Amino acid sequence: MRDERSACALAKCVDKITGVATAKTASSLTDIWFVTFKNGVIYDGQPATRAVLKIWINDWRYTSGLEYERRIYAEVIEAMLTARMSPCFVRCYASSSGCSQNSLLEILTAGMKNVTPDKIRYAWMRNLTALKSALPRPAIDDVSAKIKREGRLKEVPPSTTDTCGMIMTESMQGERTFHQFLNAGVIAPGGNSTFTDAMWRVLIQIATACYAMSYTKLTHYDLHANNIFVKNVPSSERRTVVQYAGELMLTYNNLDLVPKVYDFDNSYAHSLGTNIALTDRFGVCKWYGRCNLNIDNIDIMKVLCGVYKACDGLPVLQDIIADACCISSDSKSLMKDLFKTQYCWFVKGSGFNIEAYPESTWSKFRSSRDILYALARAAPASALNVKFDAVGQAPAAGADVYSVPPVRGMVRRAQSPVRRAPSPVRRAPSP
């Protein structure tokens, strides 16, 4: 399925397809299908049961960011997963930059066996038309629904020569987002002196994923809490996981929760070059600080901003975050200003008068690696086992092992004191 040509010929693997309707006011450039595979479909030696298929009509003016995202999944994320740097990324099963309309119609037909061909074709052309004009549209399997014109948008029938890009990723249906996970409670039983063990495990895994992205010179730029899933690992599949990160050795016994990062259309990967969607023509660099350059710590800072907001009114927990990020009292003051921004967008001003904080802002905080180290120091031993200066230490027999190598020549910043959270009296249950 990794080959682009075979990605367009997945009909033989598909058993069922359902769709997602856009909101009435949405102008999404993608159509989303949920795919259930036939029994016996295998990916990388493991059974594949479900996937999410994201489809768009190729038009460089509007969908260049989606093509860039496709390449990030196919060339960067897949390389990280294959190298076993971190398990904390949504995996791409298949992708293509140029599927024909007929090949996608064949996939749709294979997944809607109880619908007549005429109705399937109508639904497909209806949603293609809506994609062409960025109109709100029904779910692809709602074959009787009509497109409703909205505002000044006009229906523009797609050309028969229009090709479609697609990304098929592993399904996270039924799993919580990190935002939902935070809302489920992040405080340990008996007080507000620390996070739950489950929260520590998830947060440090996310910090490790951010360090892995920094190592590969990939900057996500939009890593808010709804762009991370938290996957519950069934009890029968729980294993001891050992994660090497620089000189750290992190051991999770019977790991129950694994965060999964996704959604890279606003990202920059050094190995892929310029993301057209981030150029000045669209203003996102000047206004929102999403640029064609790598900023080492901006992704983990955005994650921690969301956690900080979730801990409003709990100063001890907010101090744990501040101590992990900051290297001085001045940087703590700056962090508070950044974390006050709406949606953790890290912009100055409001309305149409906004401007991103300058690139130099991020040098006033710890690096992604040092933030990871600070969080690891603060985590209670009941959440995970942490060893420092662990290069060369062997993992436990039978453990699943992942590794982000140390960055050569990296000089550690001076560490300001980090509050080590006391171990709770009893282990917090996973929410």
End-to-end Cα distance, whole Å, is 35 Å
Classify the secondary structure makeup into a structural class.
Answer: alpha+beta
Helix amount, in percent?
A: 25-40%
Mean pLDDT, as a whole number?
88
Measured by DSSP, the beta-strand proportion falls in 15-25%
What's the helix-strand series? HEEEEEHEHHEEHHEEEEEEHHHHEEHEE
The description of the largest β-sheet is:
5 strands, antiparallel
Number of helices: 11
Strand line-up in the sheet with most strands: 1-2-5-7-6
Extended strand count: 18
Given as residue ranges, the uncertain stretches (5+ residues, pLDDT < 50) are 150-155, 408-431
Rounded to an integer in angstroms, the radius of gyration calculated over CA atoms is 23 Å
Oligomer: single chain
- Choose one word for the global shape: globular
Explain briefly what this protein structure is.
By secondary structure, the chain is α+β, with helices and mostly antiparallel strands. It is built from eleven helices and 18 strands.
Note down, in words, how this protein is organized.
The strands form 6 sheets. Strands 1-2-5-7-6 form a 5-stranded antiparallel β-sheet, with helices on both faces. It contains 11 helices and 18 strands. The chain starts with a helix and ends in a 27-residue tail after the last strand. The chain is of the alpha+beta class and 431 residues long. Strand 3 (42-43) and strand 4 form a beta hairpin.
List keywords for this structure.
431 residues, alpha+beta, disordered C terminus
Task: Outline the secondary-structure elements.
Elements lengths: L3 H4 L6 E6 L11 E7 L4 E2 L2 E2 L2 E8 L2 H23 L9 E8 L1 H11 L5 H17 L30 E7 L5 E2 H6 L13 H19 L2 E2 L8 E5 L8 E5 L2 E5 L4 E5 L6 E2 L14 H5 L9 H13 L4 H11 L3 H11 L7 E4 L2 E4 L11 H11 L6 E3 L12 E5 L27
